[in-house]
From TrEMBL:
PANTHER family: 2-PHOSPHO-L-LACTATE TRANSFERASE. CDD domains: CofD_like (cd07186). HAMAP family: CofD. It holds the Pfam family CofD. It is an enzyme of class 2 (transferase). Keywords: Magnesium, Transferase. It comes from Kribbella italica. This is LPPG:FO 2-phospho-L-lactate transferase.
Length: 325
C-alpha cells in the first residue's frame, strides 16, 4: 500500500507513529510543511521537518514533543550571556548540529529536499520525508502594532507562536514566497501515485494550508485518483494540540470539526477532501459535513497513545475504502 501524508509538526508526526503501527509494511511518503522555517543565529531551522525526523527516528523529546531527547542548552545560555537576540527562541546543543549540517549543505548549493534526505539517512526513517518545496516560503502573521495605535505589522509565524503564544489577534496569515514556489522533487509524483492521501490532524491553515498553497500541490490533490481523507484537528471547540483556533479565526473559520471540513471542501465541489473523521463527541456535526458533500464518520480522535492513534489510522484507511467504493 502506498500512502502519502501531508504533515505539520507535532500533530502530524504523532499521527505518523500510529499509522506506522497500523500499517508497518506500507510505503509511506510524508510531505512536510516548510513555511514555519526560519533563519536564526545564521542557521536554517526547519521545525516541522525536524519534528517528523526526530519523532520517527526515536530522537524526539517525549516531554516537550519537539527538539531532542537528553538535550542540553549551553549554546543558548552563552548566546544569552552575549545578549544575542532573539532570546525567545532557543536551540538545544544537539539540535544545533542538525541546523549546522543543513545550513552548510544549503550554502553549498544543495536543495532542501536533498539536504532532508541526507539528514534522514542518519535517523533511518521508516518513511520518505519530502519538504513541500525547495524554495523559501515563510509564514508571517499580521497583528496590531503594539506601539502604533491603529497600525498593523507583520511578524514571522515563529514569533507569533513562540514569543507571543498566539495571545494577540491575528488579522491575516501571509505565506511569503508561496506564490513563486515550486513543489519539491517527488512531491507531485507521491500525490499522483498513492493509494490513499491523508491529511492528519495538523494545523489546517499554517501546516496543511501552506502545503496546499504551493502552486501545483492543491491541483495535484484534486486530480489524484486516490481517496483523500482528513482527520479533524478540532475536538469540541478547541484544537487537539497547539493553537489552531487562533489562526482559524484569522481566516474567518469557526473552530469546529465541521467548519474545518468545509474549509478544506469536498473534491466533488472544488475542494480537496473526500472523507473526514471527527471525534465521537462531535457526532452531531455529521449531517452538516455530509451536506457539504463530504463522507464523514465519528471515531475517537484523541492521540493519547500509539494504540489509539493506530486505531485512528485504521479508521481513516477504512473510510478511504468506503469512499473508493
Amino acid at each position: 500500500m502506498r500512502l502519502t501524508v501531508l504533515a505539520g509538526g507535532i500533530g502530524g508526526s504523532t499521527f505518523l507513529r500510529g499509522l506506522l503501527k497500523a500499517r508497518p509494511d506500507a510505503d509511506i511518503t510524508v510531505i512536510g510543511n516548510t513555511a514555519d522555517d526560519i533563519t536564526l543565529f545564521g542557521l536554517r531551522v526547519c521545525p516541522d521537518l525536524d519534528t517528523v525526523m526526530y519523532t520517527l527516528g526515536d530522537g524526539i523529546s517525549k516531554e516537550r514533543g519537539w527538539g531532542r531527547e537528553d538535550e542540553t542548552w549551553v549554546i543558548k545560555e552563552e548566546l544569552a550571556a552575549y545578549g544575542v537576540e532573539p532570546a525567545w527562541f532557543g536551540l538545544g546543543d544537539r539540535d544545533v548540529a542538525t541546523h549546522l549540517v543543513r545550513t552548510q549543505m544549503l550554502d553549498a548549493g544543495y536543495g532542501l529536499s536533498a539536504v532532508t534526505e541526507a539528514l534522514c539517512a542518519r535517523w533511518k526513517l521508516p518513511v520518505r520525508l519530502l519538504p513541500m518545496s525547495d524554495d523559501r516560503v515563510e509564514t508571517h502573521v499580521v497583528i496590531d502594532a503594539p506601539d502604533s495605535p491603529g497600525a498593523k505589522k507583520a511578524i514571522h509565524f515563529q514569533e507569533y507562536w513562540v514569543r507571543l503564544h498566539a495571545e494577540v489577534p491575528a488579522h491575516q496569515i501571509v505565506p511569503v514566497g508561496s506564490e513563486k514556489a515550486k513543489p519539491a522533487p517527488g512531491v507531485l509524483e507521491a500525490i499522483a501515485s498513492c493509494d490513499v492521501l491523508i491529511l492528519p490532524p495538523s494545523n489546517p491553515v499554517v501546516s496543511i494550508g501552506t502545503i496546499l498553497g504551493v502552486p501545483g500541490i492543491r491541483e495535484a490533490v484534486r486530480d489524484t485518483p486516490a481517496p483523500v481523507i482528513g482527520l479533524s484537528p478540532i475536538i469540541g471547540t478547541g484544537p487537539v494540540r497547539g493553537m489552531a483556533d487562533k489562526v482559524l479565526a484569522a481566516v474567518g473559520v469557526e473552530s469546529t470539526a465541521s467548519a474545518v471540513a468545509r474549509y478544506y471542501g469536498a473534491r466533488a465541489r472544488d475542494g480537496v477532501i473526500d472523507g473526514w473523521l471527527i471525534d465521537t463527541s462531535d457526532a452531531a456535526q455529521l449531517d452538516s459535513i455530509a451536506g457539504a458533500g463530504i463522507h464523514a464518520q465519528a471515531v475517537p480522535l484523541w492521540m493519547t497513545d500509539e494504540t489509539k492513534t493506530a486505531a485512528m489510522a485504521d479508521a481513516a484507511l477504512s473510510l478511504a475504502e468506503a469512499v473508493r467504493r
